[in-house]
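Contributing new complexes? Match this layout with iron/sulfur cluster.
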Amino acid sequence: MSVVCSLYVPYNDNMQLIDKLAILADAAKYDASCASSGTDQRDSKNGKGIGSSGGMGICHSYTPDGRCVSLLKILLTNFCIYECSYCVNRASSQVKRARFTVDEVVKLTIEFYKRNYIEGLFLSSGIIKNEDYTMEQISLIAKKLRTEHDFRGYIHLKTIPDASPELLAEAGKYADRLSINVEMPTAQSLQQFAPEKSPLGIKKSMARLKSGIAEAKAHKRQKKTISNQRIKSHIKFAPAGQSTQMIVGADQSNDRIILIQSNQLYNNFKMRRVYYSAFSPIPDASQALPLIAPPLMREHRLYQADWLLRFYGFEVDEITPLNSTSDGMLDLHIDPKLSWAINHREFFPINLNKASLEHILRIPGIGAMSARRIINMRRYSRIRLIDLQKMRVAIKKVKPFIETSDYHPQARLLEKDNLRGYFIPPEQQQLAF
Ligand code: SF4
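Output block (do not edit by hand):
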């Protein structure tokens, strides 16, 4: 459902704005990178300003296909001078075009916020005239919201990679989060499908954002040390960090290549998130693009694998091994941690009363929070199966892999030839073979 379908538009005298909103909210739906988290805490409880943005991130809801809709998620325009072949807004596309003015976006954001429809703004744009002009317009919207309306809600701006560094710096002053889409898993694919975009330019801009964010954080820490007081003002630069998005399934890259790219983005540019967006076939598309979308489950498995890399101590080589029997793809029927465990049974069973946190994190069905609870709990008592039940751990899933004070796994379960089959529901097994 697009934003416009579910909201009352507060401009009865201007149907044109409604039409623009219908087009530009719909055009923004292809961007998956709209979750908000980890920004500075702001509010307007003292009667000053409009909106709030909690330290844990604003509340947001998701449509059934996982897209976030609590932000006003729009494009400034879907006109574009570029010709990225995977994009419905490319210059040669026959889609209906629209363009907001800066003041229209500001007004919509404030009006929607006051009506409690949204908690912030997610703004992206096609490239109009040139990169700098587009970036200037995007920044100006954020600036006006913050300085003229004292808007304290969340702002996520998609930045234009080839815009000048000064304009990126300006955007960082007003936005909570900045993002630049890496678009494709490899530089070769980017050159093939988006010839006007430069892989080097994208990386240079990501590096600039990384430095701006690090500098602002260092300044905040330094001021805290000096004054030992709550800081009222400090250099502001995208406190919720930077994120990016990669299209999955438009090119031939397998999951291993995608995860290697993500890992580099996290390590080199301190990304807060890499979002994976399953390619959607578009009208009059290039023949080099697939005719059907990849299964949404592929996107889901990539998110699970991404989580394992960031929070569970896994390496890409463990999740998608480089060997002659692997095609570099994640198993669509079971999650990547379970898949790793089935292929590394020598690592199990793990004794929950003795194992390190690092090892417990490797048990399928035990999340990071439960792993920490187990470590805390065993300071006072020995871990039993019922303790896991109380933590709502999926017992069927963990049983082959653990040992507790009252449970020792049946060796035959772990040694089962078809252990993978034990976890796949029968109807999925039929689909799998
Ligand atoms: S620059 Fe962005 S909006 Fe323009 S064609 Fe490429 S992906 Fe689409």
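Reviewers usually confirm one structural detail per submission. For this one: The beta strands are 71-75, 120-124, 154-158, 177-179, 242-248, 273-278, 350-351, 402-403.
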